[in-house]
Design goal:
By secondary structure, the chain is α/β, with parallel strands linked by helices. It has 10 helices and 14 strands. It folds into 2 domains: 5-223, Rossmann fold, CATH 3.40.50.300; 227-294, Alpha-Beta Plaits. A hairpin with a 2-residue loop joins β4 (59-64) and β5 (67-68). One of its GO terms (molecular function) is ATP binding.
């Protein structure tokens, strides 16, 4: 199956000389949730703006469901819904009117049934006659999503969709995004909340200084790059790592009261068993053993640091 979004050799150089995107190649699969991660200034918003036809590329091509975003802008843009990071909408209009107006901008005929379904899915139906200015920040963000879905796009871009909303609303929006995927909508999101990507994404892309440095299945990425840590709590503190363990990836923590062994994901548990055997042989008593695994946030920080 052909990708619904295809980016090839994309570059963007601004008049100031800033090279915001550097030879970006990226395919987004139909029906997936793709999370684009990167530090501030990495090029996330520029990439989204270019795919959505809001930023003109310096070179390269972008297609949306086969339509070039430059030469066939209207057809390409009709395939895409965009939820911007900024809370900008008509404050003096009602929810119903502003969402219906957004549909009309794409030349779509009126469809009250579709607008009602969107508002109900986003828990906005009881607010349909409320003016935007009277809504909370979280509700305004839901209105932006409703506007983006008003013309029935196949692809939805969410730029920091849960920035500034409380934890409960964030969870509600995660559930809503999952329902949209079940309906066949392709979701691309940027986020500073790494747990958001870990919770929802099928694939993860990392962008740094305008370059895509990694695209990987989330589960594969976690298995390949996620490190396990074994913490051994000692009965008596140690001043230094025992001589026969100096070559191991072991650190002393908590003022000598704990040894922390970083487990290479390529190895099995034999290393852990050998470590414990050596501690016993060295007459080092321990009172507890605890294992943990790197989160996606740990992996992301390591990736960006390694490429710095």
């Amino acid at each position: 199956m052909s990708p619904i979004i295809s980016v090839s050799g994309l570059n963007k150089v601004y008049a100031s000389g800033l090279h915001a995107l550097k030879n970006v190649n990226l395919d987004i699969r139909r029906g997936e949730i793709f999370a684009l991660l990167g530090p501030n200034g990495a090029g996330k918003t520029t990439l989204i703006g270019t795919i959505c036809g809001l930023v003109r590329p310096s070179s390269g091509t972008v297609t949306a469901d086969g339509h070039d975003v430059v030469t066939d802008y209207r057809a390409a843009r009709a395939k895409i819904g965009l939820v911007p990071q900024e809370l900008s909408t008509d404050m003096f209009e009602t929810v119903w009117n502003t969402v219906s107006f957004s549909r009309g901008l794409f030349g779509k005929p009126a469809n009250p049934g579709h607008i009602e379904r969107v508002l109900r899915d986003l828990s906005l139906w009881d607010k349909k006659d409320t003016k935007i200015m009277a809504l909370s920040g979280g509700m305004k963000r839901r209105v932006l999503i409703a506007k983006a879905l008003s013309h029935e796009p196949q692809v939805l871009f969410l730029d920091e969709p849960t920035a500034g909303v409380d934890v409960e609303l964030r969870r509600d929006m995660w559930a809503m995004i999952g329902r949209l995927r079940e309906q066949g909508v392709t979701i691309i999101l940027t986020t500073h909340y790494i747990e958001e990507a870990e919770e929802m994404a099928d694939r993860i892309g990392v962008i740094r200084k305008g370059e895509i440095i990694l695209v990987e299945e989330k589960t594969t990425l976690m298995a390949k790059l996620g490190k396990s840590r074994l913490r051994v709590d000692l009965k008596e503190p140690l001043a230094k790592v025992p001589a026969d363990l100096v070559a191991w990836p072991i650190d002393i923590e908590d003022d000598g009261h704990a040894l922390v062994y970083t487990v290479d994901p390529e190895h099995d548990q034999a290393g852990v068993a050998e470590l414990l055997r050596r501690l016993v042989a060295s007459n080092i008593d321990f009172k507890g053993v605890e294992t943990s695994r790197s989160s996606l946030e740990d992996i992301f920080i390591d990736l960006v640091r390694e490429r710095a």
